[in-house]
Write a structure and sequence with these properties.
By secondary structure, the chain is mostly beta strands.
C-alpha cells in the first residue's frame, strides 16, 4: 500500500452536504477516494454504483488519501448521554453480601 493511503469510514450525518447527492456528485473520486462499501442501516452494499444517492446516516467505507478523508470527517458533536436511573428490585442483594453455596 502506498504511503499516505488507507481505508477509512466516512459517516454522512443528517444535514451533511452529501445527503441527496450521488456518490459521483460528492466528487470523492476527484479527491483520490474510492467508495468500497456503503452501509445503510442493516443493509451492506458492496461496490456501490456512482449513481447511488446518499441518505442521512449512511456510512461509506473508502480507500484513498488518508489526509483527504480526515478532512471529510465532521467534528464530533457528541451529546452527553445521561444514564437512566431506576430503582433496584426489593429482593436485590447489597454488593459484597452475596451468599456462596457449595
Amino acid at each position: 500500500m502506498s504511503k499516505g493511503y488507507g481505508v477509512s469510514e466516512i459517516y454522512i450525518p443528517e444535514g451533511s452536504k452529501f445527503v441527496g447527492k450521488t456518490i459521483r456528485g460528492t466528487q470523492l473520486y476527484e479527491h483520490d477516494i474510492n467508495v468500497l462499501t456503503l452501509y445503510r442501516g442493516a443493509k451492506v452494499i458492496p461496490n456501490p454504483k456512482p449513481e447511488r444517492v446518499l441518505e442521512p446516516n449512511d456510512k461509506l467505507l473508502c480507500f484513498g488519501k488518508l489526509e483527504a478523508m480526515r478532512g471529510m470527517i465532521p467534528v464530533k458533536t457528541r451529546r452527553r448521554r445521561r444514564p437512566e436511573i431506576s430503582d433496584l428490585p426489593a429482593d436485590a442483594v447489597p454488593a459484597g453480601t452475596a451468599e456462596v453455596s457449595d
